[in-house]
Amino acid sequence: MKRKDLILIIFTLLNILPQAVLAQSANVSVSGTIKGKKDGKPLPYVNVVLKRTKDSSFVTGTVSNEKGLFTLTGVKHDNYILEASFMGLKTKTQDLFVGNLSQFIDLPVIEMEETVSQLQGVVVTSEQQTLSAALDKKTYNVADNISQGGGSVLQTMQNLPGITIQDGKVQLRGNDKVTILIDGKQTALTGFGSQYGLDNIPASSIEKIEIINNPSSRYDANGNAGIINIVMKKNKQEGWNGKVGLAMGLGSLWERKENLPTIRPQYKMTPKINPSLSLNYRKNKINAFLQADNLYTKTLNKNEFVTRTYDDGQVVQQQLKRNRNTNFFTSRAGIDWYMDEKNTLTVSGMFGSEKIIDHGDQPFFHADLSERIRLWQFLEDELKTTVMGTVSYQHKFLQPGHLLNVGFNYTFHREDEKYFYDNILPASSGTDAFKLLSDEQVYDLNIDYIRPLKYGRIETGIKLRNRSIPTDMQFKPGVNSVIDSAAGGWATYRELIPALYGNYVFENKKWEAELGLRLEYVRIQYDVNPEHPTYSSDGYNYTQPFPNFRLSYKLNERNKLSAFFNRRVDRPNEVDIRIFPKYDDADIIKVGNPALRPQFTNSIEVGYKTNWAKGSLYVAGYHRFADGTITRISTVVPGSASVYAIFQNAGKSYNTGIEAVFEEKVSPAYSFNINGNIYKNKINAYTVTNLYPVAHQFTAAEQSIVSGNLKLNNNFRFAAGVEAQLTAVYMAPDIIPQGKIGSRFSLDFGIKKAIQGSKGEVFLNATDLLNTMVIRREIVGNGFSYTSKDYYETQVIRIGYNYKF
Question: Model pTM?
Answer without folding.
Answer: 0.79
